[in-house]
Amino acid sequence: MRAFLIIAQLFLFLTAQAQQNNITSVTASYDPAAIAELYDHVQIGLEFKYANGDIKKTEGYLQGAYRWRNIKVISSCGAVQNGYLQIDRQRLARQNYQVELTVTVPETAQPLTTKLTIPHLENIRFNHYADSLKRGIRFYLNVEGSFSSGKVYPLDTAAIKFSTSAGKLLGQDLLLNTNDATTRTITVTATNKRDSSMSVTSTIPVKILLDK
After folding, report:
1. Which residues make Cβ contacts (< 8 Å) with residue 7, sequence separation at least 6?
2. Could you write out the DSSP letters of every residue in 10-50?
3. What is the pLDDT along the chain (212 residues), one digit of tens a residue?
4. Across the chain, which distance is largest between two alpha carbons, in Å?
5. Under a CB-based contact definition with an 8 Å cutoff, are residues 78 and 86 in contact?
6. 83 to each of 28, 60, 96, 108, how far by Cα in Å?
7. Contact 175, 138 (CB under 8 A)
8. What is the pTM of this model?
9. Does residue 15 lie within any of the structural domains?
10. How many alpha carbons fall within 13 Å on the CB side of residue 158?
């Protein structure tokens, strides 16, 4: 009888220990240094919370001890491999910029899920380096994007499409011929390639007198 009680107590103890070692939740984050606002290949991290209150973090930018080789992650928007998320931007927009991650680890019988919000472009603006354009000299069309993260980054022709009322577009430069004596202003429009409803217009004066 005593042996039976000891075995029962040992069983209950081991069961309680196993329950304490169960993962109850997982949260995901991305490395701010990865500039997820612009780049589609982003390093991520996972934090696992256990029933006993312990927290374990993944290796990589979170500098934890949990190895990615022991984790299987399925993403609703792109793929995850060895702690890096490859983002499908078009699908991300359809999902309101939230990626659902399904995480499988040895400590749990059922997969865990968590969501990761990726910053997105909210508006664009011109920020010219000069207040007027000189004939025969390239004028750089500097466009900046404001993101949901609160950060502002310059944008290039990979994200922006330009149109102009005069002159010639050379990549992200605007050039007006030296023999054009009639144009006094040039109107330039920048449009987000992924969202044509997001655009901004700027009128650039043409310098009349040459610098002496």
Report:
1. none
2. HHHHHHHHHHHTSEEEEEEEE-GGG-TTT-SEEEEEEEEEE
3. 555 445 545 444 444 444 446 899 999 999 999 999 999 999 999 999 999 999 999 999 999 999 999 999 999 998 999 999 999 998 999 999 999 999 999 988 899 999 999 999 999 999 999 999 999 999 999 999 999 999 999 999 999 999 999 999 999 999 999 999 899 999 999 999 999 999 999 999 999 865 54
4. 109
5. yes
6. 11, 7, 22, 19
7. yes
8. 0.81
9. no
10. 5
CATH of the domain at 30: 2.60.40
88 by DSSP, 3-state: which?
Answer: coil
Asked if 76 and 133 sit in the same domain, the reply is: no
Domain that holds residue 171: 121-205
Scan for tokens 């390639």, then name that residue.
Answer: 193
Closest C-alpha to 185, from 201, 198, 200, 161: 201
| Same-domain pairing of 85 and 139 | no
Q: Is 44 exposed, middle or buried (0-12, 13-18, 19+ CB in 10 A)?
A: buried
Residue 177's nearest CA partner among 186, 168, 165, 187 is 168
- Residue where the block lists tokens 């499409």: 161
Q: Are residues 108 and 34 in the same domain?
A: yes
d(CA 176, CA 188): 13
